[in-house]
Amino acid sequence: MNLRDSQRAAIAMLALVCTLLLWPCLSAAGSFGVTPIRLDFDRNTKTGVLKISNDADEPLQVQIKAFTWTQDAEGKDHYEESADIIFFPKIMTLAKQEHKLLRAGIQLPALQTEKTYRLFIEEMPGVSTGAARGTQVAVRIRFGVPLFVKPLTAAPQGTIAELSLHAGTLTILVHNTGNEHFIINTIRLQSGDLFRTELQGWYVLAGASRTYQAPIPPEVCRQLSALDVTIHTDKLDLQRQTAVAPSMCQP
User: Fold this and answer.
1) Which of 172, 227, 179 is nearest to 202 (CA)?
2) Boundaries of every domain in the chain
3) Is the pLDDT of residue 139 over 90?
4) 242 has which bridge partners?
5) Does the domain at residues 30-149 carry the CATH identifier 2.60.40.10?
6) Check whether domain 158-249 has CATH 2.60.40.10, yes or no
7) 112, 142, 156, 191: least surrounded by Cβ within 10 Å?
8) What does the DSSP assignment read for 5-21?
9) Cβ neighbours of 48 (radius 10 Å)
């Protein structure tokens, strides 16, 4: 073994030793539960209560912040800290296996279009009451509770704005044309008995769009003449069909 190989072996051994020393010190962050998992406000309901439970055997401290929740043209979520939501407390300390209540309310009246927010509840770093553990690496838990301020008159609407097959991949653009959000439960793709699959969806806020893509195996795609898409949401169903040609199936 030459000098360079010896150096590489020494470095590898050092890395292994460091990993073994660090492994016992990796620590899971505390765990907590939140119920309910969303709040809905309207002209008659302006306040709500969340129960936060410390499911761990150690004390837990969380901080709470409110954010406006929007989505861009690609359906990506964006958050900006907001003062529209009133909540108390802003910091909560829970003993092991304890639960406390978080009260929240909305300052703005209901409008023509739904307003959407998230109340983020995030674990704060704390000091364990148990024996010293040395250096720990932990991932803190952060949970965002959706808050919806419903419009004066709800008008859920949506459309499959784009449905195209290129290089064996089906692209589906779902656009929310209504004044309140909907949740896509499933997107079903089907062509008779030749092909069937389902995709899972997510929130699509009022005025926002979300794109989904689904690859179709070439040997199956070349047998299809048409493809039906059915989208089931919590408020409405959307349907559309597209023709399929063998040229669309080539990767």
Assistant:
1) 172
2) 30-149, 158-249
3) no
4) 227
5) yes
6) yes
7) 112
8) HHHHHHHHHHHHHHHHH
9) 19
Average pLDDT score over residue span 203-214: 95
> With contact defined as beta carbons under 8 Å apart, do 129 and 56 qualify?
no
Strand partners, 246: none
Q: Tokens 């072996």 identify what position?
A: 9
Mean pLDDT for 224-240 is 97
Q: Which 8-state DSSP code applies to residue 98? A: -
Q: Which of 169, 146, 151, 141 is nearest to 63 (CA)?
A: 141
In whole angstroms, what is the distance from residue 149 CA to residue 173 CA?
26
Taking residues 139-147, report their average pLDDT. 87
Same fold flag, 30-149 and 158-249 = yes
In the structure encoding, which two tokens stand for residue 190, read together? 């089907």
| CA distance linking residue 110 with residue 52, whole number of Å | 27
* Digit-coded pLDDT (tens) for 42-85: 988 999 999 999 988 899 999 999 999 999 878 899 999 999 99
Of how many residues is the chain composed? 251
Angstrom distance (rounded) from CA 173 to CA 246: 22
